[in-house]
Write a structure and sequence with these properties.
This protein folds into 2 domains: 123 residues, Ribosomal protein L10, N-terminal RNA-binding domain (Alpha-Beta Plaits), CATH 3.30.70; 34 residues. By secondary structure, the chain is of the alpha+beta class. The radius of gyration is 22 Å and the shape is elongated. It contains 6 helices and 5 strands; from the N terminus they run αβαβαβαββαα.
Amino acid sequence: MPLTKSKKGEVLGKLQGIAKDSGSVVFLNFHGLTMPDLSEIRKVLRGKEIGYTVAKKTLTRKAFEGFTGTMPELPGELAVVSGKDLLDPAREIYQFQKKFDKKLSIVGGVFEGRYMSQSEMLTVAQIPGVKTLQAQFVNLINSPIQRLVIGLNAIAEKKAA
């Protein structure tokens, strides 16, 4: 069913707001998803303050003009997933992409004001969270200190024996 001109204006305004206010945006093809699956996705995303909007491709292209790079191809049914956090939208959708194999796929996105291809967005989606990165950093710093202590302990035991 075609949208009226006023409804198209509302959708375009919403998409332009998403383009302006979001830290990152993921373009998503959701062909073949059932309503219960879609409801589950929306519920999880809403809990993490990530928006999920279904829109026409022509309106999406118009709303997302002005970013650097080339806008990715938008095949199939299109959803726009957005959030204030740079990594959360891509990471959450990537988890659902693995769960709903062949029914859901990332087709591209916008990250730090630049269009990203499908492969680039998949790379962004696989970046660990801040807490994980902090833990890895602490472990990296701790490793040489721990080896030094083990070495000094071995020397002390050898001298004591």
